[in-house]
Amino acid sequence: MPVRRSKVLLVKWFFESQHKLQTIRWCSSSLRYKELEETSTQGQLEPEPPITASIPGVKPRPHITPEISFKHDDLQVTLAAPYQLQRKPDAIDLGFGKYFTDHMLKIQYEKQLGGWQKPKISPFEPLSIHPAAKALHYAIQLFEGLKAYRGVDDKIRLFRPDLNMERMNLAAARSGLPMFDGDELIKCVKRLIQIDQEWVPHSETSTLYIRPTLIGTEATFGIMAPESALLFVIMSPVSAYYKASSDGAVSIYADPSVVRAFPGGVGNRKVGSNYGPTIDATARAASMGHHQVLWLFGPNHELTEVGAMNIFTVYINEHGDKQLSTPPLNGLILPGVTRRSILELASQWEDLTVKEEVMTMERLIMLNNSGRLLEMFGSGTAVVISPISRVGFVDKEIYIPTMKQPQPVFQRVKDTLLAIQYGHIEHPYAVVIS
């Protein structure tokens, strides 16, 4: 009995003192790092020059401690058992974000354990999160969206994933969440895609949507940078995002009573708090027969974004030239990967002037009334290019001749992007997954 009682007391003490043990583990880990650091620098009078990689084409990887980033080399993979594998839906049934692949990537961040932990790929499963996690109460979370495309050569490609990583880190810095090495996450995501490669649709009308997400998981009510976080990546085969009209275009409503973002805010960061508050305005627009909201700002009703897309206009400028324009990145607008790619690609076309400029509703109406407004379209990862044929504004209905152009710019842009993404042409924007 005394022995059994002592065991019970020991177990009870263990559960009551886990926080103390965690501190001990952290201290031991810190001491070990310090010991290794002292050992490596002992006897050195000055730092050694960096080691150059001996393999051609391979860049030497800088030394990254767990406090700065996780590493792909530490990736641990647990494959799903046969009974955990899901039936792959037909392309016609996909929709957007209804089905998910068999595996997911998870990377924990624990400040007391030295920062980023080892990345893990495991079978897809629900998350276990504390009810007091900061992500649930203060929207300390962010996400990204990119796609994997199965090309005409059956190779799988990503489209400029480095820009998604750059944007994700900027959002992390603004949200008090830990930053990381974007190249390391891209490598981990590539491995995840390789494992679930059969989920990449064999189609040029469907893709595999990739959703990296970073959330604060520390269970405290204090509004401050979380000491624990979770970065996870899930994937979903998808088809068209919007259900357009019969002509393939969408109708949008410019509501001057609501704003999406404001100066000094986070309109230029991909955080969840930018999207939830748009649902009511979008529902009101839908009740009036429109597909999306055109977000305006200021007394001059400046165009900013449309739905979750960047917006473009095509018109005849004062010099008689055809001009492609989009609002400048002034802090109100998300720096879209597709937006940037359109500007870079179209700038090489000699028959088109490309410019970032402020566009107001007054000027838009003036251009349309004078017959100089030719097209409007939205751009984004989910939609690629979405032509716009009608704009509702206060008590006006503005009809845009986007779908009446003989050789529309939106179609030229869309065809060029899809050609790159599906491997019809070789281009540095496309990253092939070997």
TrEMBL record:
Q: Which UniProt keywords apply?
A: Amino-acid biosynthesis, Aminotransferase, Branched-chain amino acid biosynthesis, Pyridoxal phosphate, Transferase
Protein name, entry field: Branched-chain-amino-acid aminotransferase
**Residue numbers of N6-(pyridoxal phosphate)lysine PTMs:** K270
| Alphabetized GO MF terms | branched-chain-amino-acid transaminase activity
What's this protein's family per the entry? Belongs to the class-IV pyridoxal-phosphate-dependent aminotransferase family.
Transferase: present as a keyword of the record? yes
Give the classification, highest ranks: Eukaryota, Metazoa, Ecdysozoa, Arthropoda, Hexapoda
Q: Which GO terms describe its cellular component?
A: mitochondrion
* Record keyword Nuclease present: no
Q: Cofactors per UniProt?
A: pyridoxal 5'-phosphate
Reactions performed catalytically: L-valine + 2-oxoglutarate = 3-methyl-2-oxobutanoate + L-glutamate; L-isoleucine + 2-oxoglutarate = (S)-3-methyl-2-oxopentanoate + L-glutamate; L-leucine + 2-oxoglutarate = 4-methyl-2-oxopentanoate + L-glutamate
Q: Report the EC code(s) recorded for this entry.
A: 2.6.1.42
What is one Gene Ontology biological process annotated in the Swiss-Prot or TrEMBL record? L-leucine biosynthetic process
